[in-house]
Amino acid sequence: MELALKAAAKVNLLLDIVGRRSDGYHLLDMLMVSVSLYDTITLSPREGYGRRLICERQGVPLDETNLALKSASAFSAAYFAKTGTKLPGVEIRLEKRIPHAAGLAGGTADGAGVLLGLNRMHGLPFTQKELLAIGERLGADFPFCLTGGVARVQGIGEVITSMEPLPECWLVIAKPKQGVSTAESFRRFDKEGRFGRLEHGRIYRAAERGELRALGACMENVLEPSANCPQVEKIKRQMLREGALGACMSGSGSSVVGLFDNKRLARQCHYKLTGEANQCFLTQPVAEPVCFIGKGNSKGQENA
């Protein structure tokens, strides 16, 4: 049985670093939202027990460094440990639309999509809790990318508190031409050591109450100064001039997300930034991290 699905990107409307563990992992407090920007994944049975990844986008690794393939291996190992049965092989065809190294969890979204897809393909052998345990071992963004929607994310990414959906709104995502080194950003932040400097209550209350203007006013990412990317600030200023309720860098960057409660203004901002940013998308929040689709339907972005 062939199975096709769309895996959603995520954006951060808040990112604070509240501490650091003895093993070097940073403790985070984040407001994350799944958005209608998708990679498309097709899973097909393959003879034997091997796993193969196909992706036509240049520069995408096709070995186990790719989280889609790594997730398939982890799923197979967990399945064998639980049932004593070896899974047949699988071919993973990946159509990338989520930008790479953009703070949108594109690689993790693909990996989470593979886990959820294989679980359905093989008769749901794992519960959501068991899938989360598999995902946690693969990367910090996996728990949210397996849960989706709107959530407060804490710890190193493993503590998920799901929240009510946001009222109708639009999110413009713009990725500058300049990239950001995640490792360098965290190193620069650690030199300052200003952990937990944001007041989190206001933004979570605004999100719970569906108060978009209050939510926009609280959007912030403490990694922005450490990103050392002037284009981030330039795009933020332009989004605010175009009517965004708030704007901030997503994740470790370099994408910037702007929140709008007016579709016309969001479309106008998207149009103006399309020529200036390296990539630009007009999206809306979505409730699920993965959407299973019919064969041949590989639509990668909803019409926001």
Poorly predicted regions are 296-303
Shape: globular
Structural class of the secondary structure composition?
Answer: alpha+beta
The largest β sheet comes out as: 8 strands, mixed
Indicate the CATH class of the largest domain. Answer: Alpha Beta
CATH fold call of the largest domain: Ribosomal Protein S5, domain 2
- How many individual domains? 2
Estimate the mean pLDDT confidence.
Answer: 92
Number of strands: 12
Beta-strand content bin: 25-35%
Indicate the percent of residues in helices: 25-40%
CATH architecture of the largest domain: 2-Layer Sandwich
Distance N to C terminus: 32 Å
The helix/strand series, from N terminus to C terminus, equals: EEEHEHHHEEEHHHEHHEEHEE
Count every helix, treating DSSP H or I runs of 4 or more residues as helices. 10
Instruction: Report the C-alpha radius of gyration, rounded.
Output: 19 Å
SSE order and pairing:
Layout: E1 3-20, E2 26-46, E3 51-55, H1 67-83, E4 89-95, H2 106-121, H3 128-136, H4 142-147, E5 150-155, E6 159-163, E7 170-175, H5 182-192, H6 201-209, H7 212-218, E8 220-221, H8 224-227, H9 230-241, E9 246-249, E10 256-260, H10 263-274, E11 279-283, E12 290-293
Parallel strand pairs: 1-8, 3-4
Antiparallel strand pairs: 1-2, 1-12, 2-4, 2-5, 5-6, 7-10, 7-11, 9-10
Helix pairs in contact: 1-2, 6-7
Summarize the structure.
The chain has helices spanning 67-83, 106-121, 128-136, 142-147, 182-192, 201-209, 212-218, 224-227, 230-241, 263-274, and strands at residues 3-20, 26-46, 51-55, 89-95, 150-155, 159-163, 170-175, 220-221, 246-249, 256-260, 279-283, 290-293. The protein is α+β, with helices and mostly antiparallel strands and 304 residues long.
